[in-house]
Amino acid sequence: MSLPRRYIPSVSLLSAFEAVCRLGSTSAAARELNLTQGAVSRLVQNLEGQLGVTLFQREGRRLQPTEPALAYARDVRKALELIARASLGLRANPGSGVLNLAILPTFGTRWLAPRLGEFLAENPGVTLNLGTRMRPFDFSTETFDAAIHFGIRPWPGAEHLPLFEERVIAVCSPAYAAEHRMETAEDVAKQSLFQLESRPNAWGAWCAHHGIEAPHRQGVMFDQFAPMTQAAAHGAGVALLPEFLARPEIAEGRLVPTPGEAVSGVGSYFLVWPAGATLSPPLIAFRDWIARTAAQ
């Protein structure tokens, strides 16, 4: 359902209003917008007339925004930034579009980045902007079109495409393995076990799979896989890593598997996007590509 046009002011009205609120005066806004002070004042008055709301208290020539106006200005600023980003993307790629994607740091570095060349080769007109987010966020307050998410279920208000279930494997450095001579999964559970902040029950699930009691003591806590991997490679303890992250380190000889098979992790990876949103061609192309790639 489309909104009444009276609630969709022109960009010129909104730009003048936002500039006055941000800069604190019509003169400063006029300099930024390359307009006269009188023109800025008229634009602000026209916006008030269109909305039927007083946005400023007038003290002589000075305009003091009301509290509701300041809140409105914050939303307008986000909308103007979104329009500016879309316009820049269109200018850079007039034949295609832009995809703003939030990714998990380690997933992005170790799984997505090595495969991105294939996507970009298939979609040469797409501009892909990546930003890292470690936890679910509100799509209405961020400018991302979609996100890569890990968990048991996607966050509320989002459509989702399951990519693959995480499988994890316990690993340590060759030197640590030689020193501690682990022969069973029970031996592994007695070691210094690294913990990941976002997966507090990972070792408990690993131990349950192997039919042993989970350790009561906690090892070093990390907030990302990257420093955990480095600590394990330098012989500080045992890490429980996703297979896609552990495989390159094992192939290079920096890590070795401990006793105990790889097990299902505590969640899966998803591509998510705002529920009910009209999908842009770049997002459709990326969704189809990552679904096909993950299935391999």
User: Which CATH top level class of the largest domain fits?
Assistant: Alpha Beta
Low-confidence stretches: none
What is CATH's topology name of the largest domain? D-Maltodextrin-Binding Protein, domain 2
Structural class by SSE content: alpha/beta
**β content, as a range?**
15-25%
Structure summary, number of beta strands: 11
Form type: elongated
In percent, how helical is the residue content? 40-55%
CATH superfamily of the largest domain: Periplasmic binding protein-like II
Total tally of structural domains: 3
pLDDT averaged over residues: 89
* Topology as a string of helices (H) and strands (E): HHHEEHEHEEEHHEHEHEHEEH
Provide a count of the helices: 11
| Major pleated sheet | 7 strands, mixed
Distance between the termini: 40 Å
Oligomer, anyone? single chain
CATH architecture name of the largest domain = 3-Layer(aba) Sandwich
Q: Taking Cα atoms only, what radius of gyration do you get, to the nearest Å?
A: 26 Å
